[in-house]
Design brief:
269 residues; alpha/beta; 8 strands; 52% helix; 12% strand; globular; disordered N terminus
Length: 269
């Protein structure tokens, strides 16, 4: 089944869970592997290696420069852009607006990860400026969402905020939530060992960006990417003795993830 076949109509909120999410996710993974989709990641120092390895394991192609003088060229040759606000040094701060401008000028999707905006007022201000550039997806955790939205995370507040900023909001945690102002899904896949590996959430956002290059509907791209990450984490946890062995097992699981595993394990509604 193709992604197009799985998406024969836009779904209303009550219809979101009726999509064939395992088939849709498997098709996006298959396309990613066939096409070698390129993601340029302006990401934090702690996340760079895992982010690149996750993109490679999923079948894509990463690039990672943060040099302001190079960012336009690298964004222009990529299929999607990830902007991560962690370790916000001078080069990253200078590169971010150039990268966003290049992506928008060429009609390429970009995804924002507002790391620790709840801890830094200047970073929160930058995140709000970035949101004015209309990413296709905002991927955050509950504390970051509360800082940006000014209210606690809940399904209704997520939906309201997504409508207000005009993009999909993907909130990750024990259960992931995805909303776009009209539709909402909850994804219960994943494993507690994910919290024991630095930058798992940051790296997962790169798969959201990769899927967004293949699927123009940000809601679908985000939900499918988080489903893939959650199922891969469950598979990896069965082979891991702890967080040290979990990270490579996760990359192996994502590399081998197929429709059968997605069908057997998906918990999305």
């Amino acid at each position: 089944m193709t992604a197009e076949a799985a998406l024969t109509q836009d779904a209303a909120p009550a219809e979101s869970s009726r999509r064939d999410w395992p088939a849709l996710t498997a098709e996006l993974l298959s396309r990613l592997r066939r096409e070698g989709t390129r993601v340029h990641a302006i990401t934090n120092a702690a996340a760079q290696v895992l982010t690149a390895n996750l993109i490679l394991a999923a079948g894509g192609t990463p690039s990672l420069t943060i040099a302001p003088e190079e960012i336009t060229a690298f964004t222009s040759r990529a299929d999607a852009l990830l902007v991560n606000l962690g370790t916000l040094d001078g080069d990253r701060r200078a590169a971010i607006p150039w990268g966003i401008a290049a992506a928008k000028a060429q009609g390429k999707p970009w995804v924002l990860d507002p790391v620790f905006v709840d801890a830094s007022p200047p970073r929160l201000e930058l995140a709000r400026l970035c949101l004015a550039g209309t990413p296709c997806v905002l991927r955050c955790n509950r504390a970051e969402f509360a800082a940006l939205a000014g209210e606690a995370a809940a399904p209704d507040s997520l939906t309201r905020y997504a409508a207000a900023i005009g993009c999909t909001v993907a909130l990750t945690g024990a259960t992931d939530w995805v909303a776009d102002g009209e539709r909402f899904v909850a994804i219960a896949n994943g494993h507690p060992l994910m919290a024991g590996v630095t930058a798992m959430g940051c790296a997962a956002t790169a798969l959201v960006a990769a899927f967004a290059a293949l699927e123009p509907n940000g809601f679908v791209a985000a939900a499918a990417a988080l489903l893939a990450v959650g199922v891969a984490a469950e598979v990896a946890a069965e082979a891991a003795a702890g967080p040290g062995s979990f990270a490579p097992a996760f990359l192996d699981a994502l590399h081998g993830l197929d429709a059968a595993a997605l069908r057997a394990r998906a918990r999305i509604a």
